[in-house]
Automatic annotation (TrEMBL):
The lineage of its organism: Bacteria, Bacillati, Actinomycetota, Actinomycetes, Micromonosporales. This is Uncharacterized protein. Residues 22-38 have a biased composition (Basic and acidic residues). It comes from Paractinoplanes toevensis. Residues 1-52 are annotated as: Disordered.
Length: 244
């Protein structure tokens, strides 16, 4: 459906201007400042339970903390949790701290420009986020302990994007803004999360707009439903045991 990075399915973003907010308060502590490079951090709160969908929001050093982001991302993931229960009769568990807030090691510009090759900067920002999260918190790709969702408040306008593959959902600034309620109707972001988690659970894109959330029909959320074959594939897939 879209060009893909090996092992990942590209998201279908509506290109919008990224809302970049403020500057950090003085004295902000950046997680990992006292970390030895060969010793991963335990995690922002150390309480992620195996067998759950683990959600992390990475905030660059020059982006101010804004409670709308963890609250909004949590609400979007909870709506996806409700939808999966509706569709499959089972759903995934979240952690007590639904969204772990990660103070990034770099500024906004670093994430959108580093490790980019050629003129296509689509994957740079989310790949940089993923690599930092994996290194700092000892997460693998994929990781049998968690299905991970990473969102970052950084994006190169009309360039950056995101996507998903089994075990990981990677989303850039427009998705974070949408979850926070400052980038259009919420159904767009609910449907997008359902779609990307479908990839995280092992589903491919649909080959046509077929009424399922694995096609562009996710833009019509909540008027979209998994087909039976998709339900079977989720339950039999690499993270099917996470559903109860």
């Amino acid at each position: 459906m879209d060009r893909q990075q090996p092992g990942a399915v590209r998201v279908h973003p509506e290109r919008r201007h990224l809302h970049r907010f403020g500057h950090p308060d003085d004295g902000t502590h950046h997680a990992g400042d006292d970390r030895s490079d060969d010793q991963p951090d335990p995690g922002p709160d150390g309480s992620a339970v195996p067998g759950t969908v683990r959600v992390l929001w990475l905030k660059p050093t020059d982006v101010a903390y804004d409670q709308r982001y963890p609250d909004g991302i949590a609400a979007v993931v909870r709506e996806a949790q409700r939808y999966y229960k509706q569709e499959l009769g089972k759903t995934f568990a979240l952690n007590n701290t639904v969204v772990e807030v990660v103070n990034g090691e770099h500024d906004w510009n670093w994430y959108i420009t580093t490790n980019c090759t050629g003129s296509d900067h689509y994957w740079c920002v989310v790949s940089n986020m993923q690599q930092e999260l994996m290194r700092r918190f000892g997460i693998r790709n994929p990781d049998s302990r968690w299905l991970c969702v990473g969102e970052i408040s950084a994006e190169e306008p009309n360039q950056s994007g995101g996507g998903a593959s089994p075990g990981w959902v990677l989303l850039s600034g427009h998705d974070a803004d949408g979850a926070a309620g400052i980038n259009g109707a919420m159904n767009r972001w609910y449907g997008g999360m359902v779609h990307e988690l479908g990839h995280g659970f092992g589903l491919p894109d649909s080959t046509s707009t077929d009424g399922t959330p694995m096609s562009a029909s996710f833009y019509d959320y909540p008027n979209t439903h998994f087909g039976q074959a998709q339900k079977n594939a989720i339950l039999a897939g690499p993270y099917g045991s996470f559903l109860s």
